Every structure is written in C-alpha cells, then in structure tokens.
Amino acid sequence: xxxxxxxxxxxxxxxxxxxxxxxxxxxxxxxxxxxxxxxxxxxxxxxxxxxxxxxxxxxxxxxxxxxxxxxxxxxxxxxxxxxxxxx
Length: 87
Hints:
This protein is mainly alpha-helical. The chain has 2 domains: 1-38; 40-87. It has helices at 2-35, 42-83. The longest helix has 42 residues, at 42-83.
C-alpha cells in the first residue's frame, strides 16, 4: 500500500511540474510576442493601400484627359478625312 501511495505521489508531483513548465512556457511566449517590435501594423497596410488607390486614380484621370482631349479628336478628324472622298 505504501508503494502505491508513493507512486501516486510521484505521478502527482510529475504532473504538477509538467503543468508548471507548460504555463511558464506559455507565459514566456506571450511576453515575447507582446514585447516584440517586428511585424507590420494595420496602419502601415492601410496607408499603402490608400496610396495605391490614389496613385491609380491619378494615372487613370491623366490617361482619360489625354485620350479625351488630345488623341480622340484628332483620331476622329483623321478618320473623317480618310473616308471623305467627295472633297
């Protein structure tokens, strides 16, 4: 009976040590993650997306203005002149 109780005591002691070690590891992992300075934040990503949208809109507006005022009227005139055989 004494061996049985000693065995239970050893198992409980080992289990307590394993639980303590596991909790210590989780604590240290959480502490390391919270103190780390690496990674990219949400604000940085939002600013990059906003910059890409604004630059894309500016490029698109510039191309629309170029084709709307410069290229298309002269193209239309050239096509009319090319197919106007009466003159």
